[in-house]
Amino acid sequence: MSNAKKWLIILLSLIALGLIGWNLAGNDTEAPVNNVLDNAQPNYQTDDSVTFVYNPVGDLAYKLVSDKIDNYTADKVTWFTNPVLTTYNEAGVPTWTVRSLKAKLTNERILYLYNDVQVDSLSPDSQLQRISTQNAIVNLITQDVSSDDKVTIIGQGLNSTGLKMRGNLRSRTAELIEDVKTHYVLPKEEQKNESSK
Question: I need a surface site. Which of 20, 88, 104, 154 has the fewest CB within 10 A?
Fold first, then answer.
């Protein structure tokens, strides 16, 4: 091999090694990788999930079952498809189920429920049995529940509709704010007594 070829090979090898070192040192000329989170795409997704949440003393506070979860870390929100929330009292007994077609959970533990919201009591002795509305908000810490839409409340012996509702699942209370219409239903024993008079 000629002397010129040897020097050319050595020179090209040095240039290649220099470029490799330059690239490994991070001094390449390409644009730096953007570490900003993309809010258009969820950071993680999962199907058919069951989430258990415990209170500070270790008792089960609520369970959330969902067909699909989309978590967005930058916005600190999680979206649920067909969620079913079950709340528990201090004794670990299930007290309410809350369901809708979509829900959004914020970092402050506020659950925003969208489309066909239904809240059902699991306690047969509760005066308040069911709340139905289009959209509702549940504070998972205080169990306050509210809606600014038309709401139907079904209880023992009554059926009420109205606009705007405020209540609390823990205390089993709900109050309709505007345009309230209530229909009372007599228990069957009272209906028989009324008809025999």
Answer: 20
